[in-house]
Amino acid sequence: MKGMILAGGLSTRLYPLTLDLPKPLVPVLDEPVVSHVIEYLKRYGVDDLVINVHYFPEAVRDYVGDGSRWGVDIDYLHEPKLMGSAGAVRQVADRFSETFVVIGCDDVTDIDLAAALAFHRERKAEATIVLAEAPDVSQYGAVIVDSKGRILEFQEKPPKGTERSNLANTGVYIFEPALLQRIPEKTFYDFGKQVFPEMLTNGCAFYGMRQQAYWCDIGTPREYRRVHRDALSGNVKLTPPRKAKVVDGVLIGFETRISPKARIQSPSSIGAGSSVDDGAQIVSSILWHGVRVGSGARIEDAVLGDDVIVEPGSVTKGGEFGKGTRIAARR
Questions:
Q1: What are the pLDDT digits (tens) for 96-115?
Q2: DSSP for 25-91, written as a single string
Q3: What is the pTM of this model?
C-alpha cells in the first residue's frame, strides 16, 4: 500500500532545538521520530512511501535513504517552496491510483490502521480522518461527527468550555485518489483550512473514525516531553536504538558514560555518546547526543540538544537548549 509522510515543516514551536535540525530527525527515545513513523506504517503494510522535504532536505535523505533498513521503498518530493499539506500531496498525485494513507512525521501513535481502513471502505468514503479523544481539544481543534462517523463540523481550537466534542484530528488520513482532484495544481493548499471545509460544504463522503488509541503530536515542547514520559512508562511501545538500553524508565544511549555516583531519575532519556559526571542529577529530562553534564550539576525537566555542555555545579530547571549551548554555573 502507498502512503505519504508530510515532513517539510520548519518545526518553529520546538526552537531552539530545531534551529539546525529538520523535524523528521527530532529524536524520540534517542531515535529520529521519522523512524518510528516508518515502522508504524510498515507494520500495517504501507511500504511504498514518499516524503516531502524542505528544511535541511539532505539531512533527511542521508538518514532515511531509500528505506531499505525498514524494508520499505521511499522516494522524495523536494519542495524549494512549501505548498501546504494538500499542495504537497497534489504534486505526487500520479503515485496514487488506489486508496492511500497520509500522516505527519511528528505523529507518534499506535492507532489501528487496519481497522481505520476497514471503516473507510465499509462507508465508501472519499476521505477518512482518524480521531482520538483528547482531554484538551483547545490546542488541536474539535471534530463533530454523527452516529455513523460522518463529519458534521470542525471547531478550530475552541476555548475550554465551548467545545462540542472531545475528538481531535490526529493527522492520520485515508484518502481515495478522487480527492486529489479537489486540490488545484501549483497552488498553496491546506487540508484543514481548505480541502476539508470544502468537502463539508459539498456534502462529500467524509468520515471520522473514533479510536481508543495512543496519539501524540510531538511538535510542541509540552507534547515532546509527554511522549517520552509515555514511552518510558510503557503507555506506548516504541523501539529504541538497537544498542541503547532502557532500565527502570531511563534510556541510556550507546557509548554513554554515567558515573556510578550520578543519579538519574525517570522518566529520562540520555542520548548516545553523552557523559554524566560524579554527583550530577538528571531528573525527568531529555538529553540528545554528546551532552556533557559536569560534576554536581542538576538538570530537571529540561531538553538539551546535541553537544550541550553543562558546567559543574550548575542548576537548570525547565527549558529547551539548542545544539552546543553551554549552561554555566552561577557565580
A1: 999 999 999 999 999 999 99
A2: G-EETTEEHHHHHHHHHHHTT--EEEEEE-SSHHHHHHHHTTSGGGT-EEEEEE-SS--HHHHHHHH
A3: 0.94
